[in-house]
Amino acid sequence: MTKSTLSAAGLIASCALVALGFSSSALAGAHASAAPAPEKDIVATAVAADDFNTLAAALEAADLVTALQGEGPYTVFAPTDAAFAALPDGTLEMLLLPENKDQLTAILLYHVVPGQIMSSDISGTASPETLEGDAVEVVASGGGVTVNGANVVSADIGASNGVIHVIDAVILPPES
User: Fold this and answer.
1) Structural domain boundaries in the chain
2) Distance between CA atoms of 42 and 155, rounded to whole angstroms?
3) Sheet-wide strand order for 144-147
4) Which of 23-27, 34-38, 46-50, 135-139 reaches the highest mean pLDDT?
5) Are 26 and 118 a contacting pair, CB within 8 Å?
């Protein structure tokens, strides 16, 4: 996917986010008490956290590193190394093979939503469209926030081109 394709997808999905009930600040990232903008992009922020080594390797295998270093903004639901380790035996190794690049790319893009969605922008249930093309179900309740059933274990990790929400499972797009 090229940067221009990502930008077009971002524009379309941003319009969809407004229709789904996310506040306009979710798209612009505008908050009255906003801290200074982070200097690291999403990829550099994840790598520096040292709990996303598997995600970083998968992004590299899928040739998505440069795309997620782009202008954005993006919201990334980032599975930890433990989340990838919980996949059935052999799944990750199979996905990292060059012949499975398209499947790996689809899974990774399913974790990315165009626009910057902060936890304060989420209430109730919403179904934003991902860069993969299918929607995820985001549910905010008294027990926290889930994305397709995966728990958000750390939210609002700022990056220069978006935000990361750490999740405890790898989410998979629906089969076509």
Assistant:
1) 3-28+39-167
2) 13
3) 112-114, 74-79, 162-167, 150-159, 144-147, 138-141, 125-126
4) 135-139
5) yes
Q: What is the largest CA-CA distance in the chain?
A: 47
Quick check: 140 and 94 in contact, CB under 8 A?
Answer: no
pLDDT in tens, 41-54: 999 998 888 899 99
**pLDDT tens digits, 133-167:** 999 999 999 889 999 999 999 999 999 999 999 99
Position 123 confidence tier, pLDDT thresholds 50, 70, 90: confident
3-state secondary structure of 76: strand
Query: Residue 85: which H helix or E strand, with range?
Result: helix 81-85
- Location of structure tokens 């990361």: 164
Class of domain 3-28+39-167: mainly beta
Single-letter code of the amino acid located at 136 = V
Cis peptide bond N-terminal to 174, omega within 30: no
- Alpha-carbon 20 to chain mean position: 17
